[in-house]
Amino acid sequence: MKRLIQFLIGGILTLSTLGACVPTDIMGQKPDKTPVKLLFYPGGVRLDDLVVFEGKSYFGTVETIENEPLDDLKFTTKSGKIFIAECTAISATKAGQQQCAEYEIYRSDDETVIPERTVLYRPRWLK
């Protein structure tokens, strides 16, 4: 019985750890209409956020910037580069609340990473 309980606890801890490693796939397109895909792994109190773009990993912090009509997003890498995206399209949830459906990069400290005017779409399943 003791081994069964240890096994179950170990299984639950393993599943909860793996669940935290599932990225959010974010699709979009560059200004030249080239499709892009990035993966976002949220960090936490002790871990940095992680963005994987075109096979390269960028650690840093994602935060919201208050703006109208909806908040913008800012990603600051560990090396100090800043990328800011503005909400450019709004949709409504089933409850009638506004949510951003599309973001456009309007500040990019490194055009070779994510160029300005790159559009990123909100994943449909993301609440």
Topology:
Blueprint (H helix, E strand, L loop, with lengths): L1 H18 L4 E6 L5 E7 L7 E5 L2 E10 L6 E6 L4 E11 L5 E11 L10 E3 L6
Nearest-integer average pLDDT: 81
Q: Helix/strand/pairing class, anyone? A: mainly beta
User: What value does the Rg take, in angstroms?
Assistant: 18 Å
Please, how many helices? 1
Helix percent reads: 10-25%
Total domains: 1
With strands numbered from the N-terminus, the spatial order across the biggest sheet is: 1-2-3-4-5-6-7-8
> What's the end-to-end separation, in Å?
40 Å
How much strand?
over 45%
Order of helices and strands: HEEEEEEEE
Provide the low-confidence segments as ranges: 1-19
> Which outline best applies?
globular
Count of distinct strands: 8
Largest sheet: 8 strands, antiparallel, barrel
What does this protein structure show overall?
This protein is mainly beta and 127 residues long. The protein has one domain. It is built from one helix and eight strands; from the N terminus they run αββββββββ. An eight-stranded antiparallel β-barrel has the order 1-2-3-4-5-6-7-8. A hairpin with a 6-residue loop joins strand 4 (56-65) and strand 5 (72-77). The longest helix is centred in the N-terminal third of the chain and has 18 residues, at 2-19. It is globular, with a radius of gyration of 18 Å. The model is unreliable at 1-19 (pLDDT under 50).
